[in-house]
Design goal:
Elements lengths: L2 H8 L5 H7 L4 H15 L3 H13 L6 H18 L2 H14 L11 H13 L7 E4 L6 E2 L4 E8 L4 E10 L2 E6 L1 E2 L4 E6 L8 E10 L6 E3 L6 E6 L6 H6 L2 H23 L4 E6 L2 E5 L12
Parallel strand pairs: 2-10
Antiparallel strand pairs: 1-3, 3-7, 4-5, 4-8, 6-7, 8-9, 8-10, 11-12
């Protein structure tokens, strides 16, 4: 074995050691894994590979944790030995058994890239990932409201739907997209009523996985709705400042007009009311007196 490979093997962090030690296993697999540890400690990697091969042959009767531990060990050893084909085989098995498997930080970048390629080769078994984009602030009663969500998936998003709980039951709203990421639907203003709008979102991918959900019929999401008072009759007008300002302007203008009219009118006597004679007196002409 070359010195570079031996140096790489010397820095391997075998995450499978902790996993296999914590999980129960059939005695035969346990013996092979223990011998593999001894061989690795002695830097006898050919011996370790042989023991791991025996362990893999017995994984049909092992627990899922033990299978994953064996695949981790086999993949790491193959990567360290530069056996890319065997490493890919073990990594593919690892990703199939543990779809969320992530590389240890101590792994060289080339090894991490190999695990990433295994994830890319793996069949899509996960539903789309949904990220809400609708604002959590309140919306206005009676106004159309736009729902937005980001939906992404390895095999592509096939369909996204919003379900809105309204006065007449649940309404299904197909969501549309312009970029295959941001999806939108509009809730009609007639369904935007105080105190809240209740809804949930579902998405499926092109591989048939799903639906992924934001909220559910049992536990819908909620948008607070702000009610705006609507004016009803003259009472509401009488309570506005601008109404009384306008009234004041009209009254002042009328008073001026009446004054001007009286200045131009001749004197005239008015009937008496209750013993009091009322007389309107116009402007005096030159030489005329002013009577009451």
């Amino acid at each position: 074995m070359s010195s570079s490979k031996r140096a790489a093997l010397g820095t391997v962090v075998l995450s499978w050691l902790a996993l296999s030690a914590a999980a129960p296993a059939p005695p035969a697999i346990d013996r092979h894994l223990e011998r593999a540890r001894v061989c690795l400690a002695a830097l006898d990697y050919e011996c370790a590979d042989a023991e791991l091969a025996e362990a893999r042959a017995l994984t049909a009767t092992a627990t899922s944790e033990q299978k994953i531990a064996t695949l981790w060990a086999s993949a790491e050893l193959s990567l360290a030995l530069g056996e890319s084909r065997a490493a890919d085989q073990h990594l593919d098995g690892l990703v199939a058994a543990s779809p969320a498997a992530t590389a240890p930080k101590a792994w060289p970048s080339a090894w991490q890239a190999a695990l990433q390629r295994a994830h890319e080769r793996a069949p899509d078994r996960s539903p789309p990932t949904l990220t809400p984009r609708t604002s959590e602030t309140e919306v206005v009663a009676g106004e159309d409201t736009v729902l937005e969500v980001d939906a992404s998936d390895k095999s592509g998003v096939a369909r996204v739907r919003a379900f809105v709980v309204g006065a007449n039951g649940v309404t299904e709203l197909p969501m549309v997209t312009g970029d295959s990421l941001r999806w939108r639907a509009t809730i009609a203003g007639s369904d935007v009523m105080p105190p809240v709008v209740r809804y949930w979102i579902e998405a499926t991918d092109r591989a048939g996985n799903g639906p992924a959900r934001l909220g559910s019929q049992a536990r819908p999401l909620e948008l607070p709705v702000r009610d705006i008072p609507v004016a009803h009759g003259d009472d509401s007008i009488l309570e506005t400042w601008w109404f009384w300002t306008a009234v004041g302007v009209v009254v002042a203008g009328s008073a001026v007009a009446v004054g001007l009219t009286l200045d131009d009118a001749p004197s005239a006597a008015a009937p008496a009311f209750g013993g009091v004679r009322v007389e309107l007196v116009g402007p005096q002409r030159a030489g005329q007196g002013r009577g009451l």
